[in-house]
Amino acid sequence: MSALLEVENLDTAYGASQVLFGVSFVVQPGEVATLLGRNGMGKTTTVRSILGLTPALKGSVRFRGERIEHLTPDRIARMGLALVPEGRQIFPNLSVRENLLAFAANRNESADPWTLESVFDLFPRLAERVRHMGNQLSGGEQQMLAIGRALMTNPYLLILDEATEGLAPLVREDIWQCLHQLSGRGQTILVIDKYVQRLIKLAHHHSILERGQVVWQGDSEQLAGEPGLWQRYIGV
Predict the structure, then answer these.
(1) What does the pLDDT look like over 16-40, one tens digit per residue?
(2) Which residues, including other chains, have CB under 8 Å from residue 28's CB and lie 6 or more apart?
(3) Residues 93-143 pLDDT 10s
(4) What is the rounded distance in angstroms from the CA atom of residue 143 to the CA atom of residue 179?
(5) Hey, which of 41, 97, 153, 205 has its CA 20 to 30 A from 128?
């Protein structure tokens, strides 16, 4: 099976300050993969480099077999990558419905694409607030909307950057259940989050970053069997 996403020897810098040093990992179709590590270790920069938001200095990013590291962010998005960014970044002055429809597309040419109705089935709370403006929603509802908006593009790869950060426990549980449902549908997902025990139950493959380098890779069984890694690199 060909990899959906291949990141190889990626170096990235902000000005004179290099942040990533030879980052490499692979995401297979239908897989849930994670990037783990403490804050400031390069996880978000890796995602930004994949999406063309922070151009790479060296290395390659292949998506569906095509090199994309020199493409513009809008071109990369149209190829079927969707980001649920840290901080949600929904449109505050658009309604729930308008936010969901703003970038609606069938980029993966699915026979059963995500629609308003299927997003509302996944997140009934959004259906109840369909006419509310983005800035009238709670933090949890905004996170649901950010995920729903990404799904409306019908991406090949869904990337979530700290999707449960700052949420109340009950809402956080809703998000975890959503991710399990998406995995069950065969959605390929790359997740950045700090809740290792939940990620072990969800994900197939994990990569740990430390100071901009991949220091460990393995599956959930291996990660569960090495709790010392959690304390050393993730701080849990």
Answers:
(1) 899 999 999 999 999 999 999 999 8
(2) 1, 3, 4, 188, 204, 205
(3) 999 999 999 989 999 999 999 999 999 999 999 999 999 999 999 999 999
(4) 13
(5) 153
Which amino acid type is present at position 86?
Answer: E
pTM of the model: 0.94
Question: pLDDT by residue (tens digit) across 53-68?
Answer: 998 999 999 999 999 9
**Beta-ladder partners of 228:** none
The neighbour count for residue 113, using CB atoms within 10 Å, is 16
Residues ≥6 apart with Cβ < 8 Å to 9: 22, 23, 24, 58, 59, 60
Which three-class secondary structure state does DSSP give residue 200?
helix
Mean pLDDT (the chain) is 93
Q: Tell me the C-alpha distance between 96 and 136, whole Å.
A: 10
- Reduced to 3 states, what is the DSSP secondary structure of residue 152? coil
